[in-house]
Amino acid sequence: MIELRGLRKAFGANTVLDGIDLDVGRGESLVVIGGSGTGKSVLLKCILGLVTPDAGTIRLDGQDTREMPRDAFLARFGMLFQGGALFDSLPVWQNVAFRHLKDGLSRPEARARAVDSLARVGLPERTADLYPAELSGGMQKRAALARAIAASPQVIFFDEPTAGLDPIMAGVINRLIREAVTDLGATAVTITHDMTTVHAVADRVGLLHGGHLRWMGPAAELDRSGDPYVEQFIHGRAQGPIATLR
Ligand SMILES: Nc1ncnc2c1ncn2[C@@H]1O[C@H](COP(=O)(O)OP(=O)(O)OP(=O)(O)O)[C@@H](O)[C@H]1O
């Protein structure tokens, strides 16, 4: 479904992605882990066309994404950004139904769909008419997730979906991500530092380091990867091949 070949991106002398090859299958949930600043966000931004790669190809169902009309391309994606990124000036339902409204659906119909999506993430109908600022952080995250899945996208990107949430709410979000994959049949790519998220949502895990996907394997094999970088990361050790600033 998503196919990357030789993807490279440097910012000046800082080579962030140094030839990434990656295949993500339809309906698969891939989690990308890696230290801070290793290029996880840049990788997602390249796929979305928000950052232009220096070299390499990105294909979606076999088609080069540079040749796809921008609107048609973006219509296939849902995104949950760090911090939720809801529009403050719009009530929650208009945030959630943003794409339906853009596509010309009537307001009552769009609102009804938004209420359905909110229910899916456990938010009651009364939240539909509130503004994002009137929701707690965890509720905002759920509303943003409702928006990400509202238009039943084929691919959903989750950038640090549990950052800043308490463990219970993080568990709720992880379950919802897994449901988006299993119930909606979506392909998911998640960036996280949260090992609970890795175990809850990943079919496959990739560790990004030094511009490469240094280790890639089924989630079940993460604990016996035998790779010192993976070992250090999953056990959160300061000592190891991944340098830490002290
Ligand atoms: N627009 C940009 N201009 C210059 N450098 C950039 C830009 N975007 C990202 N970078 C650099 O690319 C590197 C990777 O950044 P990125 O945000 O992808 O890291 P990350 O792996 O997502 O980190 P974190 O886990 O801390 O969010 C960093 O060194 C960053 O400074």
TrEMBL record:
Superkingdom, taxonomy of origin: Bacteria
Keywords: ATP-binding, Nucleotide-binding, Transport
One protein family per Pfam: ABC_tran
Residue ranges occupied by any ABC transporter domain in the UniProt entry: 2-235
GO molecular function: ATP binding; ATP hydrolysis activity
SMART domains: AAA
Key word Coiled coil present: no
Name of protein: ATP-binding cassette domain-containing protein
